[in-house]
Amino acid sequence: MGSHITLNKGKLRGKIENVKSKYILQKIFNNIIKVKTIKIVKYNKNIQNNLNINIDDYEKYWAEKYEIVEIEIIPAKNKYGKFINIYDKNKYKYCHIFFNNNYKKQIKRNFLKKDENVSKINIIFDKQKNNFFRLFYERNCIEYISFRKYYRNNNAIFNDMFGKCDSLKEANISNLNCKNRFFMERMFTSCSSLKKVVLPHVNSNIKSIDATDMFYCCKSLEEINLSDFIDFNIGCSYNINGMFYQCSDELKAKVRMQFGDFDCRSYKLFA
């Protein structure tokens, strides 16, 4: 069965036959006019759910449905291949990937092709996903990564999330937030090029943080905002054994200046 929609806006009137997805609709209309109403005249049952939304409310609809874990990635130059590991049984149930920061260009795959001109990648997860174990493990085509939005009303699991990302130079995880416990064991282990990390500001909602070996063997790490992340006065329980194990002497000196040699030994930060 064919389908079409009719657009009314003043004297402007148009018709589109055999519309297959909301992404096509958005691409067509975005360059024409701000659409306030879309009337479905006839539709194929297979695409009913995709069409029956107002294009103006597209991003609002998306945000309400997925409420968002949004991750921005800048790929490393001349690197290609897999950039994300998706372990869910249903591969795309929790993950939508966009290239070039363009919501009209949804690409459901988890790798970069050789010579592909991609300057930025957005990844959006729905609210059910809170376990990011090895999500980017050994993905060497990532140079920069940032959490643009993240909150969970339960535990958040980031163990080994960026382990052995050899091209990763900078990570901003300042927007991470949860209400219970952070698990960050070996989160950046052996990221040999990592120079700068922006950590989240820990508040009283967070009951405990496990950051064991979080930056193990990050020998290039120079800049990190530890005072936002570690606060022994707010009642949060910390396990930070070996957090900076086999990091550079220069970084260890900065950590000692901030926390004192006694606390560094007590919490075994360099063990």
Q: How would you describe this structure in keywords?
A:
7-stranded mixed β-sheet, 5 helices, 16 strands, globular, disordered N terminus, 2 domains, alpha/beta, 4-stranded parallel β-sheet, 271 residues
Radius of gyration: 23 Å
Question: How much strand?
Answer: 15-25%
- How many H/I helical runs? 5
- Spatial strand order of the main sheet: 6-8-4-9-11-13-15
Overall morphology: globular
Helix content: 10-25%
- Total strands: the figure is 16
Q: Which sequence of SSEs, written as H and E, runs from N to C?
A: EEHEHHEEEEEEEEEEEEHEH
Distance between the termini: 67 Å
- Poorly predicted sequence stretches spanning 5 or more consecutive residues: 1-20, 31-59
Backbone structural class = alpha/beta
Largest sheet: 7 strands, mixed
* Nearest-integer average pLDDT: 78
Number of domains: 2
Task: Break the fold down into its secondary structure elements and pairings.
Elements lengths: L3 E6 L2 E6 L4 H9 L8 E4 L5 H4 L6 H9 L2 E7 L5 E2 L12 E5 L11 E2 L8 E5 L16 E8 L6 E2 L12 E3 L8 E3 L12 E3 L9 E3 L12 E2 L1 H4 L7 E3 L9 H18 L5
Parallel strand pairs: 9-11, 10-12, 11-13, 12-14, 13-15, 14-16
Antiparallel strand pairs: 1-2, 1-3, 4-8, 4-9, 5-7, 6-8
